[in-house]
Design goal:
CATH class of the largest domain: Alpha Beta
Keywords: Oxidoreductase
GO molecular function, one term: oxidoreductase activity
Protein name: Ketoreductase domain-containing protein
Largest sheet: 8 strands, mixed
Structural class: alpha/beta
Strand content: 5-15%
Number of domains: 2
Shape: globular
Family: Belongs to the short-chain dehydrogenases/reductases (SDR) family.
Domain Ketoreductase: 15-200
Length: 306
């Protein structure tokens, strides 16, 4: 395993950070790096399979034992973020007295064409990947408001650009785009910054879909897109030094990018089907005016401009 990237010395001193999916390929090195930077880490992990089946406390307890074995501060939490988010926040406040940052890393996945993914399966995905993240924010928000400080890092996925055989997963991860913008607007007056990140890493969740890659390509993917290679950027978003909110980022291979959620200037005169079909083609042009609104008012101002 690649060494955990070094964090700024004690940059999270006296900060309490909740990390869900803590024992996974990204969560584990992230928790260790946060603890080494001085954070009190609440490592939450149900210990289930990539599809959400089963539960085991062993992975997160082993992680916390490693962290505390270095003389650092961490507690293990095995509540299901999809159903018991408030209990995770209660554990953090009970032990450390505050919640400063939430990193919504937990996620499950189900592969298969749309006709095989039942609404019940999709509901389970949504409960963990989207509703769980929202519920954790909901429970922690009053604490962050009272402090006048908070950092939230939601997780989305590059799959929102389209990934076959994963409609439920993509729908849940896509839900984090708009809600991140909304929470950023609500949190601004209280010093709460909210961003979302789409990390790239080889993990149990992608093992099934990547197993048929040519051996050399698979080896490159494993070596390059490690969980550790996402850690510095995620920590930056969760840090006190960060001043940016409401953005969509992507990470992996020790690189960082930004994903745009934008609007293209509309076309008037669509009184008929034929005119609307023509407009659709025009709107796919590369040179048309566009904007990147961060709120409904900004979007409406853009649409109203002649």
């Amino acid at each position: 395993m690649t060494a955990t990237p070094a964090a700024a010395p004690r940059s999270f001193a006296n900060r309490t950070v909740i990390v869900t999916g803590a024992a996974g390929s990204i969560g584990a090195p992230l928790c260790l790096a946060l603890a080494r930077a001085g954070a009190n880490v609440v490592a939450n992990d149900l210990g289930c399979s990539p599809g959400g089946e089963g539960a085991s406390a062993a992975p997160v307890e082993e992680l916390v034992a490693k962290i505390t074995g270095e003389g650092l501060s961490a507690i293990a939490d095995t509540h299901n973020v999809g159903t018991d988010a408030a209990k995770i926040v209660d554990a953090a406040v009970s032990r450390f007295g505050r919640v400063d940052a939430i990193i919504n890393n937990a996620g499950i996945i189900c592969y298969g064409p749309v006709e095989t993914q039942t609404p019940e399966q999709v509901r389970a995905l949504f409960e963990v990947n989207a509703l769980g993240a929202y519920a954790l924010c909901h429970a922690a928000w009053p604490h962050m408001q009272r402090q006048g400080y908070g950092r939230v890092v939601n997780f989305t996925s590059d799959s929102v650009f389209g990934m076959p055989a994963s409609a439920g997963y993509v729908m849940a991860r896509g839900a984090m785009l708009g809600v991140t913008r909304t929470l950023a607007l609500e949190g601004a007056a209280h010093g709460i910054l909210v961003n979302t990140v789409g990390p790239s890493a080889y993990s149990r969740m992608v093992a099934d879909v990547s197993k048929d890659l040519p051996p050399e390509q698979l080896a490159w993917f494993k070596a390059t897109y490690t969980g550790e290679s996402n850690v510095p950027a995620i920590m930056a978003l969760a840090s006190e030094q960060n001043t940016i909110t409401g953005e969509i980022w992507n990470t992996g291979a020790f690189r960082m990018g930004r994903t745009l959620l934008g609007a293209i200037k509309d076309v008037g005169g669509c009184e008929t089907v034929e005119k609307s079909l023509e407009a659709m083609k025009e709107l796919q042009g590369k040179d048309r005016e566009w904007a990147e609104p961060h709120s409904i008012p900004e979007f409406l101002v853009f649409k109203s401009q002649a």
